[in-house]
Design a protein that fits this description.
With 217 residues, the protein is mainly α. It has one domain: MetI-like fold (Orthogonal Bundle). Helices cover 80% and strands 0% of the residues. It has helices spanning 6-41, 46-60, 64-72, 84-110, 113-121, 126-156, 168-179, 182-216. The model has no long low-confidence stretch (mean pLDDT 90).
């Protein structure tokens, strides 16, 4: 039985990099899709609103782990076999899109109604209203909850270990199986998650405080 030493710690650090990369990929893909779904959710077209509402309802009503199982194991029934990295990225992106769509929809609706009326009085098209008036304000409002959600995403990446993706949580499991020192190994794993998530949590609170301060003036 080997001991927990520098090589094992370096392995955890490399796996932390994979966790961060997966987070960035899922957040980027899910953010692009979520932005489109948020706009659909507010569309004047009832069909687009219904499609967006159905997507959000379905994804938010099932655990993200089930989405991962369906993409990695379920698609094999149709002859589609996704590598663990692709399945993990796609599944988390689907999850991210649903939640960011709702966060961003709420932030768009939080823009005062007078801003819509003022931009409409300038004869701006719907696209121009979003681009020049609504979205710049909505983005500022959305920063605190978006960063807060990013913290949750980092922690939710731990589920991808079930399909063989070697993230930080999976690396901890592998090392523990070799050294059998669970307290020591998982304390280090928890510390690495803390190093990632704590600054993001503080950033979210800071942005929220700045936003509330601006609203009070």
């Amino acid at each position: 039985m080997t001991s927990f030493g520098w090589p094992e710690f370096l392995f955890l650090l490399r796996s932390t990099g994979w966790t961060l990369l997966l987070t960035v990929i899922a957040f980027t893909l899910g953010g692009v899709a979520g932005g489109g779904i948020a706009i659909m959710r507010l569309s004047r077209n009832p069909v687009l609103r219904w499609i967006a509402m159905l997507y959000i309802l379905v994804i938010q009503s099932i655990p993200v782990l089930m989405v991962l199982f369906m993409s990695y194991y379920g698609l094999t029934l149709f002859g589609i076999e996704l590598p663990p990295t692709v399945a993990a990225s796609a599944s988390l992106a689907v999850y991210v899109a649903a939640y960011l769509a709702e966060i961003w929809r709420g932030c768009i609706q939080a823009v005062p109604k007078q801003q819509w009326e003022a931009s409409a009085s300038l004869a701006l098209t719907r696209f121009e209203q979003y681009r020049y008036v609504i979205l710049p304000q909505a983005i500022r409002i959305s920063l605190p909850p978006t960063v807060g959600f990013l913290v949750q995403l980092v922690k939710n990446t731990s589920i991808v270990s079930v399909v063989g993706f070697t993230d930080l949580a999976r690396a901890g499991q592998l090392i523990n199986q070799a050294v059998f020192k669970p307290f020591q190994v998982f304390t280090v794993v928890a510390a690495l998650y803390f190093v990632i998530c704590f600054p993001l949590s503080r950033l979210s609170r800071y942005l929220e405080g700045r936003l509330n301060a601006r609203r009070s003036h």
